[in-house]
Write the structure tokens for this entry.
Amino acid sequence: MPATVDALLPLSLLESVRGADTPEDTEAEYVHELRNKRLGLSDTVYAEIQRYTDDAKKNRRVGNEKALAIAKLIGRRPDAETVFRSAGRRLAGEMYDSISGTRRGLVRFLPAFIARPLALSGARRVARRYLNGSLSRIGGYIMLSVGESATANTAPRGIGCTFYEANLGELLRLLVDGGGAIEHVRCMDRDEGSCEWRAEWR
Ligand SMILES: [Zn+2]
């Protein structure tokens, strides 16, 4: 069965493009002109944003290849890494918000030895739902594994993968105010079959 992701994943990519292409105040008077020159301000991106917003509201999943097509457009831009990272953080915010308020509150107030497993099981669920990825703990590390990446091989030097790296970092920061260095230990860009990240889990 083809891999699917939450509609919020492609939406995060599109909104990040739009954010990057939205002019500063000084340029505002040229917006009309820019609309034809900047992808993020184009009618196509606007229409796609509407469509995925609608899909997200109705909890409809989207084929991974749709997200991949958007990622390829981003991968050609000189600011690809900035756009990927901001999209990853944006999606992490949505993932965090979808974890129940009770659980988020408990994670914040309970002692770490109880809070951490609660945080992990919440993170595991949202990683599966939104990223089609799996999270596991190995010793003092959290591993995120994504079998069918939406962003691998879309930009040179593994830049597409910064989407997931930024996502994992932001999710851990929001959940437990933690997560140290993240290492990309396995990568489809290097023909290693899947992408995997390792984050410190202290
Ligand atoms: Zn990778």
Observations:
- The chain has eight helices and six strands.
- The helical segments are 8-21, 31-34, 43-57, 64-75, 80-98, 101-109, 112-131, 162-176.
